[in-house]
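Forum: Protein Structure Q&A
Topic: Joint prediction for protein chains with partners

I've read a bunch of threads here and the consensus seems to be that you should model interacting components together rather than docking separate models afterwards. I'd like to see that in practice. Below is the full input, 229 residues plus whatever partners are listed. Could one of the regulars post the assembled result?
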Amino acid sequence: DAGVIQSPRHEVTEMGQEVTLRCKPISGHDYLFWYRQTMMRGLELLIYFNNNVPIDDSGMPEDRFSAKMPNASFSTLKIQPSEPRDSAVYFCASSLTSSSGQPNFGPGTRLTVL
Amino acid sequence: GENVEQHPSTLSVQEGDSAVIKCTYSDSASNYFPWYKQELGKRPQLIIDIRSNVGEKKDQRIAVTLNKTAKHFSLHITETQPEDSAVYFCAARENRGSTLGRLYFGRGTQLTVWP
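Posted by a regular:
Agreed with the consensus. Here's the joint model:
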């Protein structure tokens, strides 16, 4: 298995632009998580899905952030409009209920908003 | 929600010595406690985990202990090696019954092992 796949790996954009991050979970995994990592706030859960349905989005910082999971093999995290304080590494992770359920992290997307 | 505190934030040890990282959590219903290792520029990777019905678990040089009464758990690395240098994160998962709960992470410990 290729593991969790994220794209792009690096994104540099200007303030006000729309940013879309993409994730393909491990095949067969029924949970998908979006995390954000910064020096100031550490590793934060933004939102997670179970069988494509959002379970908890209380970590989404504000209305500028949205996430979708149209099918079991694809999810997006969108920021519109982006701001410099959104600069961070965004990790997607997936897990399987029948195991311990620990997230398997993707390689991350390093986002820089100028 | 759950609150996970992790100490120390930085830890330096000599190669061959032991390293201990401690975490506390606030929600007594939390039932799963993983530890992740993150090397510079890489993704967090699970190194060991423990469930709330177990007090201790060991995997070669790594061990984790859990004290449910005191609501704290610790990571122990023996015979440290330079390649153990990384940031280590503890986490606690809230109990949501049949649905997986959120994982709450500590702020991380930067471990440096000097040769």
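The mean pLDDT of chain B is 94.
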